C-alpha cells in the first residue's frame, strides 16, 4: 500500500471540490463523502482519495495499492484541478515522489509485438513481449496502451512533470492511449496476450489488426481490479471488450463460488473455451440483439438466482442501465456491485 499527500495553493478550493464531486458522480457513479474532521473523501476497495479545504488552498491525500495505480490518480487530480485553476495544478508537489521531472513514468513499459492473429470472430489477439512482467503482475490486469496518432512517426513517450503527473506530447507527436486488458500471461516467456475487439476505425483496433512482429508500443500500468470480492453467488456480465477481464477475474473466485455469467458475443464465439475453468453457468446473448436483450437476460437470470455480488463491463448505455438495476432492483450496495463503461458508442476515447 502506498500513501501520498499534496497541497495546491488556490483561492478556488470550493470550486475544485465541487468539480471533483460532480466528475466522480457523473463518470464513476461515486458519491463524495464527508468525514468527521471536515475532510471529504471517496473510498473503494484499497483506494482512498481525500480532499481537505484550508484557508490557503486544498490538500489532497491518496492511498493506493501500488505506485502504478498512484500515478493514474495523480494524473486525474492534476487534470481536474487544471480545469478550475491551471496554475495550482502546476504547483502540486507530492510527498515521497518516486520520479523526477523529465523521467519516463515509473509504470511505463515498452512492449514488442511477437505476433498478431484473429483469435475468434471479432477479436484480435496481440502477443507482446513485456520485459520485467513478473515484477508487476500483481499490480492489476489493465494496461493503458499508447501509440503515436500518426503511426508513421517515431513515438515520443510521456515524461513526468514536477507535479507528479505525466506530461503528454502534443502537436504532431500526440499519442493515442486506450485501456486494454491483459487477457493472458506467459511469465516464463515474459509475454502478454491482449485481445482487442475488431471494430470500425478505432486506431487501437486497426493497429492491432495490422501489428507485425517486432513493432513496439508503449503502455502504462498494469493497474486496476485484479480479483472480485468474496461472495457466495455471483452475477457477472460482459461484452467482447470486457471478456478478457472476465477471463482473468473468474479464476480468482473461491472454489465454492456459484453464479451466472451473461455474455454479449456472436453465436459462433467459443465462450466456454475462452472462459475456461469457469464453474459459473454461462448465458449467451447474441451481440446483434443489442442493449435490450442483454438487460433482459440479466433480469431473467437474476430472478432465477439472486446474486450477492453483481458486475458488468461493456458499452456505456448498458453499463448505466445495469448499475441502476443492481442498485435499485437487486438492492446491492456499494462494494457488492460494480457496472463499468469500457467504451461509449460514438465517443472515441471514452474511459481512457
Ligand atoms: C479498464 C478497461 C479495459 C478494457 N479492456 C479492453 C480489452 O481488453 N479489449 C478491448 O478491445 N477493449 C478494451 N477496453 C475498451 C477500449 O479501451 C475501447 O474500446 C477503446 O475505445 C478502443 O480504442 P480505439 O482506438 O480502437 O477506438 P476509439 O478511438 O476510442 O473509438 C473510435 C470509435 O470506435 C467506437 N468503439 C470503441 N470501442 C468499440 C467497440 N468495442 N465496438 C464498437 N465500436 C467501438 C467508439 O465509440 C468510437 O466511435 C477496455 C476499456 C477499459 C476502460
> How widely separated are the two ends?
24 Å
Structural class: alpha+beta
CATH fold-level label of the largest domain: Elongation Factor Tu (Ef-tu), domain 3
Main pleated sheet? 6 strands, antiparallel, barrel
Helix content: 25-40%
Second rung of CATH, namely the architecture of the largest domain: Beta Barrel
Structure description:
The two termini are 24 Å apart. This protein has 9 helices and 18 strands. It is α+β, with helices and mostly antiparallel strands and 352 residues long. The chain folds into 3 domains: 2-91, TATA-Binding Protein, CATH 3.30.310.50; 108-223, Translation factors (Elongation Factor Tu (Ef-tu), domain 3, Beta Barrel); 233-343, Nucleotide-binding domain of ferredoxin-NADP reductase (FNR) module (Rossmann fold), CATH 3.40.50.80. A 6-stranded antiparallel β-barrel has the order 6-7-12-11-8-13. A 5-stranded antiparallel sheet has the order 1-5-4-3-2. Helix 1 packs across helix 2. 26% of the residues lie in helices and 35% in strands. The structure holds flavin-adenine dinucleotide. The site of flavin-adenine dinucleotide has 26 residues, from strand 11, strand 12, helix 5 and strand 18.
Give me the secondary-structure topology:
Layout: E1 2-9, H1 13-28, E2 33-34, E3 40-44, E4 47-53, E5 57-64, H2 67-84, H3 86-91, E6 108-120, E7 123-129, H4 133-136, E8 142-148, E9 159-160, E10 166-167, E11 175-186, E12 191-197, H5 203-210, E13 216-223, E14 233-239, H6 243-249, E15 258-265, H7 271-274, E16 281-286, H8 290-304, E17 309-315, H9 316-329, E18 337-343
Parallel strand pairs: 14-15, 14-17, 15-16, 17-18
Antiparallel strand pairs: 1-5, 2-3, 3-4, 4-5, 6-7, 6-13, 7-12, 8-11, 8-13, 9-10, 11-12
Helix pairs in contact: 1-2, 8-9
Amino acid at each position: 500500500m502506498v500513501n501520498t499527500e499534496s497541497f495546491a495553493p488556490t483561492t478556488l478550493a470550493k470550486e475544485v471540490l465541487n468539480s471533483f464531486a460532480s466528475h466522480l458522480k457523473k463518470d464513476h457513479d461515486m458519491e463524495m463523502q464527508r468525514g468527521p474532521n471536515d475532510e471529504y473523501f471517496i473510498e473503494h476497495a484499497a483506494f482512498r482519495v481525500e480532499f481537505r479545504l484550508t484557508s490557503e488552498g486544498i490538500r489532497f491525500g491518496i492511498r493506493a495499492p501500488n505506485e502504478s495505480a498512484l500515478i493514474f490518480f495523480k494524473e486525474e487530480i492534476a487534470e481536474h484541478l487544471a480545469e478550475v485553476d491551471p496554475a495550482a495544478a502546476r504547483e502540486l508537489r507530492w510527498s515521497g515522489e518516486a520520479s523526477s521531472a523529465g523521467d519516463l513514468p515509473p509504470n511505463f513499459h515498452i512492449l514488442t509485438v511477437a505476433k498478431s492473429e484473429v483469435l475468434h470472430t471479432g477479436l484480435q489477439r496481440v502477443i507482446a513481449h513485456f520485459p520485467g512482467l513478473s515484477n508487476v503482475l500483481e499490480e492489476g490486469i489493465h494496461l493503458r496502451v499508447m501509440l503515436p496518432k500518426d503511426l508513421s512517426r517515431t513515438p515520443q513517450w510521456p515524461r513526468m512533470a514536477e507535479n507528479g503527473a505525466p506530461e503528454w506530447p502534443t502537436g504532431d507527436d500526440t499519442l493515442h492511449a486506450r485501456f486494454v486488458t491483459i487477457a493472458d500471461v506467459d511469465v516464463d516467456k515474459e509475454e502478454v496476450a491482449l485481445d482487442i475487439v475488431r471494430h470500425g476505425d478505432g486506431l487501437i483496433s486497426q493497429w492491432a489488426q495490422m501489428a507485425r512482429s517486432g513493432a513496439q508500443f508503449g503502455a502504462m500500468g498494469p493497474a486496476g481490479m485484479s480479483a472480485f470480492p468474496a461472495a457466495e453467488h455471483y452475477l457477472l456480465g460482459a461484452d467482447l471488450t470486457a471478456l478478457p477481464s472476465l477471463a482473468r477475474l473468474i479464476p480468482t473466485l473461491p472454489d465454492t463460488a456459484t453464479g451466472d455469467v451473461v455474455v454479449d458475443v456472436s453465436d459462433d464465439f467459443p465462450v466456454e473455451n475462452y472462459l475456461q475453468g469457469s464453474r459459473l453457468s454461462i448465458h449467451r446473448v447474441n451481440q446483434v440483439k443489442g442493449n435490450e436483450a442483454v438487460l433482459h437476460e440479466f433480469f431473467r437470470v437474476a430472478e432465477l438466482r439472486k446474486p450477492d455480488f453483481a458486475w458488468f463491463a461493456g458499452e456505456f448505455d448498458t453499463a448505466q442501465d445495469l448499475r441502476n438495476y443492481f442498485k435499485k432492483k437487486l438492492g446491492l450496495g456499494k462494494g457488492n456491485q460494480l457496472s463499468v463503461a469500457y467504451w461509449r458508442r460514438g465517443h472515441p476515447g471514452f474511459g481512457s
